[in-house]
Amino acid sequence: MAHDVKSQLTTLLQQALASVAPTATETPIHLERPRDPTHGDFATNLAMQLAKALKKNPREIANQLLAALPPSKLVIKADVAGAGFINFTLDPRAKLGVVSAVLVDGANYGRSTQGGWQKVQVEFVSANPTGPLHVGHGRGAAYGASLSSLLTFAGWDVTREYYVNDAGRQMDILGLSTWLRYLEQHDAVVPFPPNAYQGAYVRDMAAQLKHAHGDKYLRSAEAVQAGTPGLPEAGRADDEAKQQRELHLDALIAKAKELLGPDWEYVHQHALNEQLADCRDDLKEFGVEFEVWYSEKALYDTGLVARCVDLLEKKGHLYVQNGARWFKSTAFGDEKDRVVQRENGLYTYFASDIAYHLNKFERGFDKVINIWGADHHGYIPRVTGAIKALELDSDKLQVALVQFAVLYRNGQKASMSTRSGEFVTLRELRKEVGNDACRFFYALRKSDQHLDFDLDLAKSQTNENPVYYIQYAHARICSVINQWSGDLDSLPEAPLARLESPRELAIANQLAQFREIIETAARDLAPHLIAFYLKDLAGEFHGWYNAERMLVDDAELREARIALAAAVRQVIRNGLAILGVSCPESM
Prior knowledge:
The chain is α/β, with parallel strands linked by helices and about 575 residues long. Helix content is about 50%, strand content about 10%.
């Protein structure tokens, strides 16, 4: 109904425009809600848009538009303000029609065709499958899932995608870490590198190997260490020591591949499969699922990385220096040129990232949204540059950055890591505060702003806890409707004219803004606006509930109030569904 009111106002203005400026009827008409409610319900800057073409003062044009505005029961007041804005105040009864619209549309209320069913890919999380997801990944997962649901609700054809980094050195380190723990469990102890993966989950994967295959992959500790540089003293932190640790780790990986031969692939794949399965389960329990899990390894297996680098060379965007191939990324705004193929013939991570983006564009998406950690900010120019170098439309790529979440307990910053130095996992956070609080609190701030996650607040059952506050409004309405025990199907025909109090009109006005909030949030990739809106709506409802009786003796007024409450319940459901939060019927 909000959309209908805006449409009616737009039609009135179009008629006035045709009278005042018949040569400018294509001028887009923008209607916004004033920040100050005393300025009316809607405002337009149409007169200021016309000033240059008509060579007149905007206030003069605004007054002409008002004089030409057709009479309407919708508008009770229209006046000129400021430099030439036109403010409209609507008849309060016109605002109440939204209640019936919500009840008729149900779960579809607020849906928009803004996206025009264009294809958009949202790639998010994409964490290396080298260990459990941590609280930082959790924010990216919550944001990506909520954004995807929001874009779907706003009329986009969304594909949710997880890019699996299953190629390269980090996966080799995980495979090696698992094998070294397996040897340890067979009493073939090799000093465990401090830069390998330390978590208990690595020991668990090693135990699985031992249980399933016995000593099949056992090799002597002496054979494993033969020819490796060895580790520096544990306390050393100088650059030489750091380099030696990395060289030692690479030597152990090479030795594992040599000693295991074809079996290395099995150990490597076992570690990948276990971590990927754990990641899928964790995300699914968190209400986050993907249509596509895209393998980095597939980019190499299909030859796409090589084809992509060759394409860049044919287009004149590569040069060779010290045996390596470099991409001229400075020509596209990057701070320095980047290696895409090392002197040993191996391609860099950047090369596979370019190939992955080429693949995204070749799949025909109208828009590609990457959700990256804020530490990837510097990566944007080089990827955008590579897209331009491939003569693709870089405007189709949009990158949303997600800042890390900081945990607080008892008013103090909580430790983000365990005793073993690992980050607190997403699973541990979900276990402590619950999925609903996790999903909602992650969505409470703009994604690129730092988020202080108050663990005590998230667990509290008070009005200060925003997710509890909103869910409690929903539960209260369910309780009232259960006590009423009337026919829900009759509510769209309720005598809404009986809703006359300022609180009731304010709630109706809030309901009418839902679609506008959806479209603004989708345009700005900002699902946190839904969280803010729901908190405000719940506040309006609780204030009304505490001030008025719902189940009054007057049958017409009772039915009208139940209809308004049911509409609030529906919009809360629709909004929380986008954010991945449940709607309990009792609390």
